[in-house]
Design brief:
By secondary structure, the protein is an all-alpha fold. Helices cover 98% and strands 0% of the residues. The longest helix is centred in the middle third of the chain and has 93 residues.
């Protein structure tokens, strides 16, 4: 009777260990799947962010170039207007 009781206790302990191991494996599998999904989402977000950054850098470069050109054109027009005012002043003196 004592041997059967020891056997039953051992079987009960081993069965509990197997069930716990299966539960742990299931939880770890779910955790791994969630982490892989989070990684995929993060990589997608990184790709979108990198693409947006590249577009923004290109826009900034184009905008800086355009502003520089407009500033240069403005300075040229200012110089031309100054020369025209001087010419008009000389013409008024002559008249």
């Amino acid at each position: 009777m004592n041997g059967k009781h020891a056997y039953d206790m051992l079987m009960q302990d081993l069965t509990a260990q197997v069930e716990q191991s299966e539960t742990d494996r299931s939880e770890k599998s779910e955790s791994k799947a969630k982490k892989l999904q989070a990684k995929a989402d993060a990589e997608g977000s990184l790709s979108d962010t990198s693409s947006t950054k590249d577009d923004d850098v290109k826009y900034l470069t184009d905008l800086t170039s355009t502003c520089g050109q407009k500033a240069s054109d403005f300075e040229e027009r200012q110089q031309l207007r100054t020369e025209e005012i001087e010419a008009i002043g000389k013409a008024v003196e002559i008249l």
